[in-house]
Design a protein that fits this description.
The protein has one helix and no strands. It is an all-alpha fold and 18 residues long. It is flat and about 15 Å long.
């Protein structure tokens, strides 16, 4: 969807998007 979205998930989950 968006790079910012992935970065947000990484910060929240603390795991890489892939």
């Amino acid at each position: 969807m968006g790079e910012m979205n992935n970065f947000r998930i990484v910060m929240v989950t603390g795991a890489p998007p892939r």
